[in-house]
Amino acid sequence: MSQNFDTALKPPFSEKWGWFVALGVLMIMGGGIAFGNVMAATVASVYTVGIVMLLGGILHMAHAFRVKKSESAFYWSFSGACYTVAGIFALLNPLLASATITLLMAVALIVAGAFRIWTAIKLRPLDGWRWIALGGLLTLVAGLVIAAGWPVNSLWILGLFLAIDLVMQGLALIAFGVLAKG
């Protein structure tokens, strides 16, 4: 079954392999630009989040008017107002928003790392549990390092993560394109 699936997908991707490689190269270039000025990349990230939240809030409130006679109208209105306020906050003060997002990211990494370690301990009778524990430990340490450097690192940490993500996605697309060509 999977061989038929692979064979069915191969022609469209093998014909367009160059587009994947080109997109990968552009993403790596974007990552390089972000690495060159991680503070500007942080601000750009926060503006992007702010715009998305603002648009989401407006759409939630518009939806509230469409369902104004239902029980959920208050939920949609309140949710939309929260998104809108958060989006405006991010757009008006991106540095404070980046500090907030960075702190939330540190907490999320700490919790995720601790949970992975706990899960690994529960999986201890199975082979490979140490890899899950190691991954959890690295996630936990990353969260602790970010929290220890907060709020100063909030000026650059989001931009650094954006740069790393752009480069990694670019490399993945180049690898995919080259392998799809074959």
From TrEMBL:
Domain of life the protein comes from: Bacteria
Residue stretches spanning the membrane: 17-35, 41-61, 73-92, 98-119, 131-150, 156-180
Protein name: Uncharacterized membrane protein HdeD (DUF308 family)
Record's keyword terms, sorted: Membrane, Transmembrane, Transmembrane helix
Organism in which the protein naturally occurs: Rhizobium herbae
Keyword Transmembrane helix: yes
A Pfam family hit: DUF308
